[in-house]
Amino acid sequence: MLQTTETGRPLREIRVPVPGGIITGDLALHETDRGIVIFAHGSGSSRLSRRNRWVARQLEALHLATLLFDLLTPDEEILDARTGALRFDIPFLARRLVHVTDLVRDEVVGPGLPIGYFGASTGAAAALIAAAERPAAIGAVVSRGGRPDLAAPALRDVQAPTLLIVGGADREVMALNQAALAQLTCPRNLRIVPGATHLFEEPGALEEVARLAGEWFARYLV
């Protein structure tokens, strides 16, 4: 039986062998899509993240395919839940994201569909490093409550237009994003959602994130 998203789009499970196991993603792809956004999840999150799934559905309305992927195998997720070690191993997560990106481009959607990244928390740092490593493949990056400071060595090599979205009440992360913005040399912007905290749980906050992300991808990705 064909699985579909909440908005009725075809949903396909993608399984990628990696050293130590399998990582899994959910691909929502329609023949009319003009680009694809790969989601890089943050600390302790997964492709089942309610917030990222909701944002994905909004991007799909703009004719963007979405791929929500777990960058850790089930065994690695158990280890990380116990120790927290892997969620901050940004180079490791970035390598996994590059691996997934290459698979998507070469075997899933083909080279003709532009690819963007949507990164949350530490996943945003992995997305920025991966974008620096695949400059010809990545058309745009959006960070939601991200930690771009953890990608500091790679920031000047990022060529993809990058949007940093931060909650106005998330003061520490806002300062980290402001510092990272100064290091980026690509087309870039920092947008602050007034009153929002790190998880954008306040009424209307996530809607604003989706609106800003949609505008960015519409401008730079497609």
Characterise this structure:
This protein is of the alpha/beta class and 222 residues long. It has one domain: Alpha/Beta hydrolase fold, catalytic domain (Rossmann fold). It has helices at 50-60, 74-83, 90-108, 122-133, 171-183, 205-220; strands spanning 3-4, 10-18, 21-28, 35-40, 64-69, 115-120, 138-144, 162-167, 188-193. A nine-stranded mixed β-sheet has the order 1-2-3-5-4-6-7-8-9, sandwiched between helices. The longest helix has 19 residues, at 90-108. The radius of gyration is 16 Å and the shape is globular. The model has no long low-confidence stretch (mean pLDDT 91).
CATH homologous superfamily designation: Alpha/Beta hydrolase fold, catalytic domain
Order of helices and strands: EEEEHEHHEHEEHEH
Strand content bin: 25-35%
State the end-to-end CA separation.
32 Å
Across the major sheet, the strand order is: 1-2-3-5-4-6-7-8-9
